[in-house]
Amino acid sequence: APTLRNLMPANVRIGAAVDGRLYAADARYRDTLTSDFNAVTPENALKWPILQPEPGRYDWTASDELIELARANGQAVYGHTLVWHSSVPSWVSESWSRERLRSVLREHVQTTVTRYRGKIWAWDVVNEVLAEDGKLRDSIWLRGLGPTYIADAFRWAHEADPDARLFINDYGVEGRSRKADGLFKLVRELRAQGVPVHGVGFQAHLRAGTAPNDATGNLRRFAALGVSVAITELDVRIALPVSTEKLLDQALLYQHMLRACLAVPTCESFTVWGFTDASSWITSHYPGYGAACLYDSDMKPKPARDALLHEL
Ligand code: XIL
After folding, report:
1. How far apart are CA 201 and CA 84, in angstroms?
2. Going by CA atoms, what residue is nearest to atom 3 of ligand 1?
3. Distance between CA atoms of 166 and 224, rounded to whole angstroms?
4. Per residue in 142-174, pLDDT tens?
5. In degrees rounded to 5, what are phi and psi of residue 189?
6. Facing residues of 80 across strands?
7. Known InterPro entries for this protein (predicted)?
8. Can you tell me the distance from the alpha carbon of 64 to that of 245, in angstroms, rounded to the nearest whole number?
9. Which single residue of 64, 66, 74, 291 could bond 20 by disulfide (Cβ 3.0 to 4.6 Å)?
10. Which helix (H) or strand (E) holds 233?
11. Ligand 1: distance of its center to the CA of 240 in Å?
């Protein structure tokens, strides 16, 4: 039977965010993951509080295991994420001096990227740095270090692995919006300053029955800046209860986003944020919504998965 992995054009990776424990322990999860996807993004295993629960004590157990499994199954690994306001270890203190905050951030970026040098093809260096109005989002990093923390993080990551593709990633920017305009300006400025930003990641956490405003044109204008683009966290949540009509709306939106990616020659990867409703983050983070993935909770393919196959 045809699979997403087999049908995807060779220049575009097809990925899924994964839970390493399920990958290791659940045969049904693993079989679907390895037959449909040639890339994975650790859903949480590379986040800072997991990697460094206490100052100076790194714990690579979960990330090493997941990355080894992916490699054993011929899957590329997308690294998520080095700098994110919402995932800072609790021992990092807002009251530290600028120098101390900066050196802790630098150490984290350098150590993490160096450890997986050659094993992670791309990194979300910074995640969600913009606010809805297109300005930089308030965060411990912006308050403590000022806007230059972004360029610094890219330079540190690039030094640690010159071959890794370095992305800036955000949500609410897949269509044209004020936030997307802000991201566009930021990427243009960073590139003009020679900062090693190689790609823009569009999360695309979407809701069935909606559509981003001109996703294709939006991806194209970023590509014209000389960067790659990627759909990094696609899911399409449904307002419960599920109906046949909503599943079809969902399928159309998945297909729409794949079409936008395939329309842009430098769209390098298309990643869904979880592939099965059995373990999607939507249930716990969006009360009243669910069924956001390509496979249902019994690991049966949904219309959305057929729609992607059909598009390929
Ligand atoms: C989410 C994970 O899916 C959850 O398991 C975790 O509890 C919180 O983070 N944007 C991102 C991802 O960049 O890191 C988030 O992942 C989903 C939203």
Report:
1. 14
2. 281
3. 17
4. 999 999 999 999 999 999 999 999 999 999 999
5. -65, -45
6. 124
7. GH (IPR017853), GH10 (IPR044846), GH10_dom (IPR001000)
8. 41
9. 66
10. strand 228-239
11. 21
Measure the N-to-C terminal CA separation of the chain; round to a whole number of Å: 14
CA-to-CA distance for 6 and 142, rounded, in angstroms? 43
Query: Domain 4-311 is in which class?
Result: alpha beta
**Which sequence spans correspond to the domains of the chain?**
4-311
Task: Report residue 94 as tokens.
Answer: 């807002």
Q: Which of 233, 245, 268, 311 is catalytic?
A: 233
Q: Please give the ipTM for the structure prediction.
A: 0.99
How many angstroms does the Cα of residue 44 sit away from the middle of ligand 1? 7
The stretches of 116-214 forming alpha helices (DSSP H) are 140-145, 149-160, 178-192
Q: Mind listing the pLDDT tens digit for each residue in 172-228? A: 999 999 999 999 999 999 999 999 999 999 999 999 999 999 999 999 999 999 999
Probe ligand 1: pick from 273, 275, 286, 293, max atoms within 8 Å of CB? 273
- As a whole number, the mean pLDDT across the chain is 98
Q: What are phi and psi of 116, to 5 degrees?
A: -105, 20
- Catalytic residue at 233? yes
Q: How many CB atoms lie within 10 A of CB 218?
A: 24
Q: Give how far Cα 122 sits from Cα of 117, 221, 254, 305, Å.
A: 10, 21, 23, 25
CA of 126 relative to ligand 1 center, distance in Å: 14
pLDDT the model gives residue 109: 98
Ligand 1 centroid from CA 55, angstroms: 23
The crossing angle, in degrees rounded to 10, of helices 178-192 and 215-223 is 10
